[in-house]
Amino acid sequence: MKKLVILGAGTAGTMMLNKLSNVLDKNEWQITIVDQHETHYYQPGFLFIPFGIYQRKDVVKPKRDFFPTGANVVMSEIDRIEPEKNQVILKNNVVLPYDYLIIATGAQIRPEEVEGMKNGQWHKSIFDFYTVEGACALADFFKHWEGGKLVVHVTEMPIKCPVAPLEFAFLADSYFTERGMRDKVDITFVTPLPGAFTKPRASSILGDFLNKKNIHLTSEFNIARVDNEAKRIVSWDEVEVPFDVLVTIPTNMGDPAIQRSGLGDELNFVPTDKNTLVAEGQKNIFVIGDATNLPSSKAGSVAHFEADILLENFMSVVEGRAPSQKFDGHANCFIESGFGKGILIDFNYDTEPLPGKFPLPGVGPFSLLEETKMNHYGKVMFRWMYWNFLLKGQELPVESNMTMAGKRM
Fold this sequence. Notes:
It contains seven helices and 24 strands. Strand 6 and strand 7 (87-90) form a beta hairpin. It is globular. Helices cover 24% and strands 26% of the residues. Helix 1 runs parallel beside helix 6 (300-318). It folds into two domains: 2-108 and 253-318, FAD/NAD(P)-binding domain; 109-252, 3-Layer(bba) Sandwich (FAD/NAD(P)-binding domain). With 409 residues, it is an alpha/beta fold. The protein has helices spanning 11-23, 132-144, 164-178, 200-212, 256-261, 300-318, 373-390, and strands at residues 2-7, 29-35, 39-41, 60-62, 72-75, 78-82, 87-90, 95-97, 100-103, 107-109, 126-127, 148-154, 185-190, 216-218, 223-227, 232-235, 240-242, 245-249, 252-254, 285-287, 331-338, 341-347, 356-360, 364-368.
């Protein structure tokens, strides 16, 4: 019997488990999925928790609810992968041999990578919202905060969901306006990028939104340390940004098991062929989602688009053929802009976000690079789609690779 091991039961790993369980002969294949946590988090929902839109209960479900019947589930921390032996070693010293391996171990925040970030003020006046604990702590803080300098800060790229920090700033503007205290809150958006976003066209548009909302932009800021006593972040060239509350996106890194396996780059992301999703230097190891080092966004939509490509390439490899399907870096992001509106961008490795209609040309119902209420509804509706369709590996009416249909140059 052939053995397939999937490392990680987050979005990408769960999708691949469901897709492959539907196509691989159960009499010929044993599929094992490994994860150390029983709870699945809807991570896009973390954004809404600090503003009282969602609560913790709205973003968590048991992982086993989304596994197919009969799945071989191993709940354990991964120690390392030994690709030369085709085996995975778990922390409890259990050895899992494999014929094929899919790495879907995701990305994690590492606030300790920046001097002073996780010292005395962590979750007191310095918060993240990339964990449910950080988002909930920030929600409690905002309930009683009377105003001051709010700094939204990105440590370094890449990060999960690159638009999320901007969304946070936009929602903060909306939240404090609706509470009648926006004039008491000074919002600054601090980024290591030269502009508001990674793609120049979208960066220009999103930068205009920052201006319209009276959110100050500090770009090309490469943080060296956090001064907890003076409450300021300091760059390597000694630029200082003071804060009363710092909402930071810390360094994002891959799973430590990747480092222990000698398979990762300096951030523990796995070097991966950006088209075939095969791990570089390997023939029987595939990588998907946030665990890759691809120059695409680390986002749920990207993992979904990758999953369809990976399914085809996996089947080609196990049947003795070369992987022929090519992922083009397709990303699709709804951006909350506050006050019940949103923006939608659709792009890939080579094509900037363009205006137009999505997904139906000329019809939509969503508008690209425009702020509309329908785009906001799309963002909110996605949670239902995520739990009921995407995680279960079912098809969604969106092409895996980007299409130019409906877009205007």
